[in-house]
Amino acid sequence: MGDAYCSDCKRNTEVVFDHAAGDTVCSECGLVLESRSIDETSEWRTFADDSGDHDPNRVGGPVNPLLGDVGLSTVISKGPNGSNGDGSLARLQNRGGDPDRALVIAFKAIANMADRLSLVSTIKDRASEIYKRLEDQKCTRGRNLDALVAACIYIACRQEGKPRTVKEICSMANGATKKEIGRAKEFIVKQLKVEMGESMEMGTIHAGDYLRRFCSNIGMNHEEIKAVQETVKKSEEFDIRRSPISIAAAIIYMLTQLTDSKKPLRDISIATTVAEGTIKNAYKDLYPHAAKIIPEWYLKDKDLKSLCSPKA
Fold first, then answer.
1. Which positions fall inside the TFIIB-type domain (predicted)?
2. Interval 243-269: pLDDT, tens
């Protein structure tokens, strides 16, 4: 109840708030003074009674089909002294244990790493599915959880067509080294091959898969990014026997040498997580084809002679 001016009664009258409809109604004449109003108060209220627990949440997390109970299990809360009445219900629940405890911990680790890498939810779900298949085979016990989680994310990224380099994932892993992640990846591929009876599809990596992210890290404009993409596409016509990521890094380095603000090799190496020596070797292979792979429209006001010689 409250007071508000009613245009029909021509005075302030008591009004009734209909929270279900969002209406403010005059209690004397029934006129709707305001409709579809927004309730800015808290959506929840505390249902903790006198237990001293002020957690306002009255629902659990979202449904997770990868868990045995689909994420809908009941957790018995504790009282103010860490007990629940006589404590019998809490003790019984703890005694039974949680069969999905290891999965929940792994899924949280996957979600945290995916957030740090700014990955979409489809990749996170795919990584969780891969880990669940490993857990079903009971082959994760005693293995490095961080390495397994990182490897699951690496494989999921490749399968979803959004690959990340091992170095990128390693930088976000909690202590897992590049070597450990590599071993975990091989272990996962081997285990799932046994499960499926055939080789696991990892997805093909192309140099273009890394371009936008690398170009963004360097701060290239739209025109330069377009030129890099076209150069990478044309380079596929030649037999350049280098890894996709090293080709992408070398082409970015090549095109930045044609601009006024030339980027040093060290900056390209940091932005692409590719070693300077690797970029130099790929650049050496690409240099003879520069005139053929770089778009003509991009070379109009630029001189190929400004490209440094691979021998330099």
1. 2-34
2. 889 999 999 999 998 888 788 899 999
Is the domain spanning 98-194 CATH 1.10.472.10? The answer is yes
- Between strands 11-18 and 32-34, the pairing is unpaired
Integer Cα distance of 18 and 265 in angstroms: 67
Q: Using an 8 Å Cβ cutoff, are 271 and 218 in contact?
A: yes
CA dist 145 and 173 (Å) reads 10
Residue whose token pair is 């880990």: 131
Closest alpha carbon to 106 in 62, 147, 63: 147
DSSP string, 231-291: HHHHHTTS---S-HHHHHHHHHHHHHTTSSSPPPHHHHHHHHT--HHHHHHHHHHHGGGHH
- CATH domain 205-304 topology: Cyclin A; domain 1 (1.10.472)
Residue 182 is encoded by which pair of tokens? 């590599």
If you write DSSP's letter for every residue of 158-206 in order, what string do you get?
Answer: HHTT----HHHHHHHSSS--HHHHHHHHHHHHHHHHHHHSSPPP-----
**250: nearest Cα among 291, 221, 207:** 207
∠ CA 264-265-268 to the nearest 5 degrees? 95
Q: Under DSSP, is residue 106 helix (H, G, I), strand (E, B) or coil?
A: helix
Domain ranges for the chain, please list them: 1-32, 98-194, 205-304
Task: Check whether 121 has a pLDDT greater than 70.
Answer: yes
At residue 151, the pLDDT reads 94
